What we know:
The chain is an alpha+beta fold. It has 7 helices and 11 strands.
Amino acid sequence: xxxxxxAFHLAYSWRSDxxxxxxQNEDAVIxxxxxxxxxxxxxxxxxxxxxxxxxLATETIVERFHRQAMSRTDSESIRLFVEATIQEANIIIxxxxxxxxxxxxxxxxxxxxxxxxxxxxxxxxxxxxxxxxRDGELEQLSRDHSFIQEVIDQGFFAxxxxxxRYGIGENILxxxxxxxxxxxxxxxxxxxxxxxxxxxxxxxxxxxxxDDWMREILMSVAExxxxxxxxxxxxxxxxxxxxxxxxxxxxxxxxxxxxxxxxAEGQRLDDD
Length: 272
Ligand SMILES: [Mn+2]
C-alpha cells in the first residue's frame, strides 16, 4: 500500500454466507483496504434479481472510488461522494429493473464506510446496519429504514419486542436502492480512535444474534483475531437458525501511523 488513506492502521475482515435456509446468497460484500472502503448490500427480488441488485450496488460504488482518486483530507467532500455513488448505484439498479422484465422490482440495501485521515464516512439505505464497539460499548450507528423502526419511532410501540408481538414484520423496508429514481441516503461522519471496531452487516446477522451477544464476540477480538471474530459471528448466526444470508465486514482501528502526512496531528478536522 503506497499511500494509506487513514492516519491509523486499519485491519479488515469480511465474510458472506448463504445461511441454512435460503437457496441462494443475495447479499454482496466488497472490501478494498487500499481505498479504505467497505460496502455491504442485501438484495431483494424474485428469481436471482436480488443477487443482481446487490452486486450492481457494491460493484458500482467500488468502481467509482477506483476511478476517482480523491484526497482523504476533507471529510465533507468524501461524504458528498459517498452520497453520489449510492445515488448512482440506485439509478443503475432502478433502470435495469425497468428494462429487463426478469429484474422487475429488484432492490437492495446498502451499508458502507469510507475512511479518511482520522474519520470515517458512513452511508446507508435500508436495514443493513453499522455498529461501533468502543470502550466495551456496542452502539448501532445506523437507523433502519424499515416499517418496524418507523412505528417504533412514531411511538406506537415501546419496544421492538412489543411491535413484533403485535405482528409487525421485521423485513418491510421503507427505503431501498432500485425502487425509485431518487433515494434518500443517510450519511454521517464519525471520528476514529485506536481500539474502535466497526461492524457492517446484513440483517441475517443481527436478526439471528442479539446485540449483547454480538458485543461479546466482538470483545473477543482483543484476545483472539479479527478473522476469528468474523468466523464466530457467521458460525453462531448459522447455529441460531441461519434463516437468511449472513454478511459482515469488520474494520479494526489500530495505532496511529507515525509518518502519515496530513494525519490526525497535522490536520485537525472539524467534521460534525
Ligand atoms: Mn437479509
